[in-house]
């Protein structure tokens, strides 16, 4: 039996409406419980007797597109018809439930998103939306607010990135209404100082977005310094290496239309609503698309680093996790995917591959197995009953430190022996785990023990070469987060390449019709 005390409300004075109670009882058991709990807590008294509040709700629905949501999901015309014909009895009850259902769904979409990310990603484990009891309490608080429209707007995530995305959406929506912008023709890579008949088109394209450093009167075919600087600014805004060289990726970004940018921002607004609840408190955030990680403790950024993430064929998943321990001088047990797709085929082609990588074969008891006794050509078809292990050491694949996470997918953070890869602008290069450029600094912060784990003590433990597992001194949430829009160091919106093609699935789910508001 549901208890009315589950949802706190301020006193209401209208008389109970038995038609509301009856209509709620007639609903399908599969109907969302939020509305039923909301009316139970207010003893079935109506909530929408004031026309001004109904108008405020309809205005909020029509403004949903400012958040990248579809007003059509809420059928504003139906709401207007219901507002114009209050009716009585059962009709009034239907009207009541329509408005309350609409508000409940609008609040849910604004704060937590329309799409359930678990339908797109099997690994998804970020904080879920509130249960119906909690959501009914939120609904009651908004209904009772003095300014309903403001209370609804306040339900959207209160994050700098979200606010910039909303502003960016309005900007690109306005540009899209004017049509597409000039395209830069395909051709050879353009380098500073060169001349090309494509230069005027490049200049025209950048002027559309009002680049303040460009002369609109310029019309030569020379890739001059002013234009080079404008291209560098454009590249920085799109997560590209700001080198002024117009290659394939810069050309794709230049020729992405305003309408496409609108859709990209919509996907990122939805994605941010999914994770907003976790972007608070102490956290180690790995920005997968930006190849970057930062640690926030006590509200302050205390560490940042370049990272290397999974290649498109072996993606780093989006996860909420925690560091369970640190492993100094870790041994590497080759994961099943790498074993199946990399090691076994290479051994079949080159019997000396294991030795060249300092890898050895062991059985389940840890005893060494002679690689020459194994049928490597048939191992993929007939199974492989052994493990491939790499001994610890700075030249090992995991480097000198491993940050063990708690997920069941063998995804973790670690040092690397291939440090030159951090010089690359694009770093989707791993087999799914996250390689960290500054692991020692991160280890000291997570150990959180300056007496026993000073910089000197940590370095001595690493230099010993001994494999050692150490508990963390500070529990920190780890967020592996994928986003094709971010804020740069100056707080400006940066739109980036969708390296795993995730935006497409989100947009398709956003476009799907949602279930009818009443059943």
Short description:
The chain is an alpha+beta fold and 519 residues long. The protein is built from 18 helices and 16 strands.
How is the topology of this model organized?
Elements: H1 18-26, H2 34-41, H3 51-62, H4 76-84, H5 90-112, H6 132-143, H7 148-153, H8 160-177, H9 199-208, H10 225-237, H11 248-254, H12 258-275, E1 283-287, E2 292-297, E3 300-310, E4 319-328, E5 332-333, H13 336-349, H14 353-356, E6 359-362, E7 368-369, H15 379-382, E8 387-390, E9 401-405, E10 413-414, E11 428-430, E12 434-436, H16 439-447, H17 455-463, E13 468-471, E14 477-481, E15 485-487, E16 493-495, H18 503-511
Parallel strand pairs: 1-14, 3-11, 10-12
Antiparallel strand pairs: 1-2, 2-3, 3-12, 4-9, 4-13, 4-14, 5-8, 6-7, 6-8, 9-10, 15-16
Helix pairs in contact: 1-5, 2-6, 3-4, 5-12, 8-12, 12-18
Output the structural class.
alpha+beta
Helix content: 25-40%
What is the spatial order of strands in the main beta sheet? Answer: 1-2-3-12-10-9-4-14
Low-pLDDT windows of residues: 1-12
Mean pLDDT: 91
Throw out a few tags for this protein:
single chain; 519 residues; alpha+beta; eight-stranded mixed beta barrel; four-stranded antiparallel β-sheet; 18 helices; 16 strands; 37% helix; disordered N terminus
What features would you describe in this structure?
37% of the residues lie in helices and 14% in strands. β15 (485-487) and β16 form a beta hairpin. The chain has 18 helices and 16 strands. α2 (34-41) crosses α6 (132-143). The protein has 519 residues and is α+β, with helices and mostly antiparallel strands. The chain starts with 17 loop residues before the first helix and ends in an 8-residue tail after the last helix. An 8-stranded mixed barrel has the order 1-2-3-12-10-9-4-14. The chain is globular.
